[in-house]
Amino acid sequence: MGSKQKPVIIISILVLAVITASILFGMGVIDFGKKSSPESGDSATDISGEATPEAKDSVESSDKDVPQTPINIGPGKYTCIVRGIDLDSCLIELYDIDTGADVEFTFTAATRITTSYNSVISAQLLRVGDVVDVVSPDGSRLDSISGDSDFKTHKDVMRFKFDRSIGRLTAGNDVYKYDDRILVLDGTHFIDVDDLDSLDVISLFYRDNTVFFIKVVSSHGFLSFAASDDFAGGTVSINGNETGYQIAPGLSIPLAVGEYSVYVENLELSASADIRIDSHKTAVFDLSPFGRVPVTYGDVNFNIYPEGALLYIDGVNTLYSEPVSIPEGSHSIRVELGGYIAFTGTIEVSPSGGTFNISLPPAPVASNDPPEDLLYNDSDEAAGFLSDEVDQGSDATDGGDNGDFIFDDSTSDSADSAYQPDTGDKKSGLKLIISCTEGTSVYINGNLAATVTGGTAVCDKPRSGTVTVRLVLDGHISRTYTVTIEDDGEDAIFSFPAMVKQ
Predict the structure, then answer these.
(1) Is residue 437 within 8 Å of 498, Cβ to Cβ?
(2) Chain-centroid distance, C-alpha 204
(3) Order of all β-strands in the sheet with 492-495
(4) Nearest-CA neighbor of 125 among 77, 92, 80?
(5) How confident is the model at residue 57 (pLDDT cuts 50, 70, 90)?
């Protein structure tokens, strides 16, 4: 019985030993010599669980567009990309393409610097982005710097595409490999590969069909718009070609570096400008000077006499019992009422408004008497005094009670019908002045007195009392007015409405 239990006890002891060892290993008490050695290349953490300096450097250097703290990679020969040069301190900062790490070396007057064709140059001729081979005897000082001759270049690539999932770079018809070690230089600063745009022109530096370095030959920028509300939905044309973009908040159009003529249009609005696009910068086209101009109004009061007169502002009949809101600027107005001479003029409206007082003078009263020149007047007014039974086209041979009239538009005024003023006022030198439509013939008491020339007709002033004024103009309706001549020792002045076409 005892002999059967011994194996079980031994197995139990072994199991407990394995479990105990596993627990101690997990707590870090036992490391079996795997992570405790400083020479181990796999060292990543110390006993406390904190990342070692080497591990921290490895994590930080993953962002290639920002130089990290340089590390010492020991003596040897390295292929690098120049990140920066300090001639005063004789320091050169490099990017090791094999490790993807930033390294720093010193150089002296004894350091041999040559081109890839073995021509000696000075340190002043080194530039950021140069691909060089360097040799260091101790990991801190450089014996030589030379242009790398192993790298090949694919220049001025205009069509390219990155596929990160498989590390493939397509440049035109060529296909290359790349990985996270790739470095991209745009001008004087380094950028991430994701910042490249299809508008850029680039040059590739590769070895064994793997691209390690890219230089941007021609970069891109962006065009955006400010104060674009009035242009929302409008079209954008660049260098005379419509782009297909529509103005909207946040619109940003990528463009290659250069000068562009930009034209924006929306309904009745348009804007144009010459825009400069710089590398990886946004040029803003401010549309505020081209938007709709806010309209300001002024409240205008109209005091018009007599009541009931009609007011027209810019040809529109307008009520004026309350202040009228009118856009700032010049406006034409007309005020008219039957029996009064109409007023026509222009008003200036400011945002502060104002008040306009307009009084219409009475029009001359028309006479109910038939015109004195009835025999020679073929107008609607003359026809109103004719009997419906009159035969205007027959000769005066029937001797009827109403008489027969013959009308002849071509009959001219004879000397016998000339105006003869009363001799009682002829020596006074006073004048009768009448304003009316240019060319109107003025008849006084049936006699031709004058013709309107330069806006007025002037003749001798008749003797005081009531006279008949007849106004005749070819193609217009003739008018007859009765006016009163005052014996006041002054010229008699009358203004009549414009003649109306038939």
Answers:
(1) yes
(2) 40
(3) 456-460, 431-435, 492-495
(4) 92
(5) very low
Note the pLDDT tens digit of each residue in 445-488: 888 889 999 889 999 998 888 888 888 888 888 888 888 888 88
The torsion defined by the Cα of 298, 303, 308 and 311, in degrees rounded to 10, comes to -40
3-state helix/strand/coil string of 173-211? CEEEECCCCCEEEECCEEECHHHCCCCCEEEEEEECCEE
Strand duo 241-246 + 210-218: pairing: unpaired
CA distance 220 to 218: 7
240: three-class secondary structure by DSSP:
coil
58 HSE (CA, 13 A, CB side): 11
pLDDT score of 112: 96
Q: What is residue 6's predicted lDDT score, i.e. its pLDDT?
A: 57
Cβ contact 360:345 at 8 Å: no
pLDDT at 382: 60
Spatial CB neighbours of 468, under 8 Å, sequence gap ≥ 6: 367, 369, 372, 443, 444, 445, 446, 480, 481, 482
Q: How confident is the model at residue 241 (pLDDT cuts 50, 70, 90)?
A: very high
Mean predicted lDDT score pLDDT of the chain? 80
Q: Tell me: the pLDDT tens digits for 206-223?
A: 999 999 999 999 889 999
Can you state the percent helix, strand and coil of the chain, rounding each to 5? Answer: 10, 40, 45
Secondary structure letter of residue 73 according to DSSP: -
Q: Single out the residue of 97, 91, 252 nearest to residue 184, CA to CA.
A: 97
The length of the chain is 502
The structural domains of the chain, ordered by start, are 59-147 (2.40.50.320), 152-218 (2.40.50), 220-290 (2.60.40.1120), 299-359 (no CATH), 374-495 (2.60.40.1120)
DSSP 245-295: EE--TT-EEEEESEEEEEEEEETTEEEEEEEEE-TT-EEEEE-GGGSPPPP
- Residue whose token pair is 């202040």: 323
Distance CA 305, CA 315 (A): 20
In the predicted structure, residue 367 carries a pLDDT above the cut 50: yes
Q: Check whether the bond before 75 is cis (ω within 30° of 0).
A: no
Beta-carbon contacts of 70 under 8 Å, excluding residues fewer than 6 positions away, are 93, 102, 103, 104
Read off the tokens for 193.
């590969």
Q: Contact, 445 vs 372, CB < 8 A?
A: yes
